Automatic annotation (TrEMBL):
Domain ABM residues, every copy: 27-115, 128-216
Record lineage: Bacteria, Bacillati, Actinomycetota, Actinomycetes, Frankiales
Enzyme Commission number: 1.14.13.50
Identification of the protein by name: Pentachlorophenol monooxygenase
Keyword Membrane among UniProt keywords: no
Length: 825
């Protein structure tokens, strides 16, 4: 960690009001901005002038400008407001336009988030802020708040402590503990104090589940006397009642604060389970280097870590994603993957079920599709991407992994034995040696460029720009449905509004055309695909205009939490593999968000590649195993992209069979049939029914195992990191058949280095010979027989990614052994 100078500038240490209070209406906005290189001082001065004006706006309580010294051009603007109405009024006012105009030419990007302020504990003047973020399970929010209050009270009198605040992201279980300290040294001394654990014991059960921590310094604030001079008495009284370090009541003793002088105080980033932007270990070797820690990269890292493969996961971003809920829909197939990875319960707790889709064209409902299909193991979940990444990060950490943030790939070279990657961080550059490298670094992938992969995303750009926003909407439409509003003129779509429900009353992530001001600006510049921070985020007023034109009459939006601009593009690389390097997710394919395919397709890329890389890294892979990744996943990417482009500006209902369309969109019907590394051996009279080689292996219920007091699912048997071989026997199976299974299983296990689990699934009427050296699973309800269309002796080999790798009917030992040899070498 770099040395820290956190003096805080003039005024630090002055005595101010100390009060513990509860603020039920106060809200805080965090606007992250990047100043243009070389113009940081201009940016700070321009903000200060604009902030002095904003401090006169009724309802404004306070403003801070914070800077990250590890990346000197990165700033966070913090503003507290008496309530959301005051914030919304400011968003529609000329004062906001003045702030935008003052900073427009001095910054490169911006991102805004809004939080509820729950509790505040004031003390001495601040020099650094410590931000701790954690997620509390549903139903435990009140207990967490009470624990915070008890710990805050116990913190009184601690040397260097200034105050604490508790912030809550509305509609979620995410809380932010914001503490102010006289210096970073004072905070770190407290962390190392033996009394630390005792005084914070009430919070430890919540933080043990995972949290992140960052430290900032305060760079500038509007002068206190000018803040007071411009405040109305009503605003001052309201701010004080809210319990925030605010303007004093008329006649009260004046509070002292740091002056407006721009501090040069530095800060450091500290995160448990997340490595900081330190120089990577020189020439450190690893099995797999994963570049990009989004959902795709995290999924791959989990798959490798759970198999004991040495993996390094790096990401150019210095911080985890903020409140931006980019990808929302979690497909049924992804839920199955998460069950295998052990995180499906946490995802269900954090998300909401999506009941179906309603389509409205020119004010008239044309479709209402229900997505509740009881035959599927899981339904369609709504979960913001930042929650997805949090859950995946926690799982990776539980497996012993860390994300190396602030680390960027600068170049790579390959030879027959591995890949040499050049990495840079805030304090220097080094090289890393890996057996394999995977680029999951998004739409603007460095790995893709380094591999010289052909990618036509520029040619596939859509001319329109779109805006996304997280807001609350007032209307009487059914809850839990994805809502698609279209406007057509002469059969051509000229307006679109898509609303995806989120947790929270009336809360939606909405997508629609960008406002005219941004479209006009974009016409003069080249806007790349993906999310862009080139433009000021859309305002609540601009979102309301879109709702007025497309949503039901009288619809109003409020509580804007986050907004952004993005451009749709589509394209796919010509190759998914070059030597020992691979690409996955958005680095390999881009497409419109129709059906919510992007994140889910990337997760499936990683789930397919992970087990194959693990076998290769351990020396157990056949010569063509890694080639099968491209053979299987590139056609899948092409299929997803083709449909997404085809229906991007339609009602998306391109299949008369609504159930079949839903299963396709959820990637439940995805198959690798006909690819080189799946196969089958069917007798001339064997019926060709049930899941074929390459198909997803469906779940089965009603299985029984001796010694287990409850019925089992097939997914419980095949869950884990290895292959699963299922032999079947019914009443016609002889003892010779079943003894033959024993011999085949022993040979298969030797071939596969013990990486295959084997079971005998037997009909209730089948007779198991005494001493059979195979685990016996009884198909008590004959569900397995029905779903897998089994009659007589047969075998199914289920791959670690849940697809049928091989099937044999009857069981042909030679054909099965040939397939195992192709996979394991």
């Amino acid at each position: 960690m770099p040395n820290v100078d956190a003096t805080g500038g003039p005024g630090v240490g002055a005595v101010v009001r100390t009060a513990l209070s509860t603020a039920t209406d106060t809200v805080r906005t965090l606007l992250r901005m990047r100043a243009r290189p070389g113009r940081e001082q201009e940016f700070e001065s321009a903000w200060l002038k604009a902030a002095e004006v904003i401090s006169t706006v009724p309802g404004n309580i306070r403003q801070d400008l914070m800077r990250n010294p590890d990346r000197p051009g990165e700033y966070v603007i913090v503003a507290d407001w008496e309530n959301r109405s005051a914030l919304d009024a400011f968003g529609r006012s000329s004062h906001r336009d003045q702030l935008t105009a003052a900073l427009r030419d001095l910054r490169d990007d911006a991102e805004r988030n809004t939080y509820d302020v729950l509790h505040t504990l004031d003390g001495r003047g601040p020099a650094v802020r410590v931000l701790v973020t954690t997620t509390v399970p549903p139903g435990e929010e009140d207990a967490f708040e009470q624990a915070f209050l008890e710990v805050a009270e116990a913190m009184r009198g601690v040397a260097g402590r200034v105050r604490e605040e508790l912030l809550h992201e509305p509609g979620t279980g995410t809380f932010h503990l914001l503490a102010e300290w006289a210096s970073e040294q004072a905070f770190l001394a407290w962390v190392g104090d033996p009394n630390h654990s005792d005084r914070t014991r009430q919070l430890i059960p919540f933080l043990d589940r995972g949290f992140s921590r960052r430290i900032f310094s305060i760079v500038a604030r509007p002068p206190e006397d000018e803040v007071n001079a411009g405040a109305s008495p009503e605003a001052a009284i309201g701010a004080d009642a809210a319990g925030v370090n605010a303007r004093p009541r008329p006649g009260a003793a004046p509070q002292q604060r740091p002056t407006a002088a721009l501090s040069t105080a530095a800060s450091a980033i500290v995160r448990p389970q997340v490595a900081g932007a330190r120089r990577p270990e020189p020439d450190a070797a690893t099995d797999v280097l994963v570049v990009g820690a989004g959902p795709t990269g995290l999924t791959l890292a989990i798959e490798l870590a759970r198999r004991g493969v040495a993996c390094r996961l790096v990401d150019r971003s210095t911080e985890p994603p903020g409140q931006a809920d980019k990808a929302i829909g979690v497909h049924c197939r992804t839920m199955e993957i998460w069950e295998d990875q052990g995180i499906v319960q946490e995802a269900m707790d954090a998300g909401i079920w999506l009941n179906g889709q309603i389509v409205v064209v020119n004010g008239h409902q044309t479709h209402r599709v229900e997505w509740d299909l009881p035959e599927l193991p899981y339904a369609h979940l709504g979960l913001p991407q930042y929650e997805t990444e949090r859950i995946l990060t926690d799982r990776f950490a539980a497996l012993g992994g860390t994300i190396e943030r602030g680390v960027e790939l600068r170049g790579l070279t390959q030879d027959a034995a591995g890949v040499t990657a050049r990495l840079s961080a805030a304090d220097g550059e080094t090289t890393v040696r890996a057996k394999y490298l995977v680029g999951s670094d998004g739409a603007h992938s460095t790995v893709r460029k380094e591999l010289n992969l052909a990618f036509n995303a520029g040619a596939g750009r859509f001319p329109q720009l779109f805006m996304l926003a997280d807001v609350e909407v007032d209307w009487s439409l059914p809850e839990g449905y994805l809502l698609r509003f279209l406007h057509e003129t002469d059969g051509k779509m000229d307006g679109m509004l898509v609303c995806v429900p989120l947790r929270g009353q009336g809360r939606y992530r909405i997508a629609t055309m960008a406002p005219p001001r941004i479209m006009a600006e974009a016409a003069r510049t080249d806007v790349p695909p993906g999310f862009t921070k080139e433009y000021e985020p859309p305002t609540l007023a601009e979102l309301q205009v879109a709702l007025d034109g497309l949503a039901p009459p009288g619809t109003t939006a409020r509580n804007l939490r986050w907004s952004s601009i993005f451009r749709i593009s589509h394209g796919i690389v010509d190759r998914y593999r070059v030597g020992r390097a691979f690409v996955a997710g958005d680095a390999a394919h881009l497409h419109p968000p129709a059906g919510g395919q992007g994140m889910n397709t990337g997760i499936q890329d990683a789930y397919n590649l992970g087990w194959k890389l693990a076998l290769a890294a351990g020396g157990h892979a056949g010569p063509d195993l890694l080639d099968s990744y491209e053979a299987e996943r590139r056609p899948a990417g092409e299929s997803v992209m083709g449909r997404a482009v085809r229906v991007a500006f339609t009602d998306e209902m391109d299949n008369e069979d609504e159930k079949a369309q839903f299963l396709d969109e959820m990637q439940m019907t995805l198959t690798y049939r006909g690819t080189p590394l799946v196969g089958e051996a069917l007798g001339w009279d064997a019926p060709d029914r049930g899941p074929a080689a390459g198909d997803r292996a469906p779940d089965v219920h009603g299985l029984a195992r001796r010694g287990v007091g409850h019925r089992l699912r097939l997914f419980e048997l095949i869950q884990g990191s290895g292959h699963t071989l299922l032999f079947y026997g019914d009443a016609s199976s002889t003892e010779e058949d079943l003894r033959g299974y024993e011999k085949i299983a022993a040979a298969i296990r030797r071939q596969a280095a013990g990486l295959i689990n084997v079971y005998a699934v037997l009909d209730p009427d089948a007779v198991a010979p005494a001493g059979l050296d195979l685990p016996v699973i009884r198909d008590t309800e004959r569900d397995y027989r029905s779903v897998y269309a089994t009659t007589g002796p047969c075998a199914h080999l289920i791959r670690p990614d849940g697809h049928v790798g091989f099937r044999s009917r009857p069981v042909l030992a030679g054909a099965l052994e040939d397939h195992i040899r192709a996979v394991f070498g």
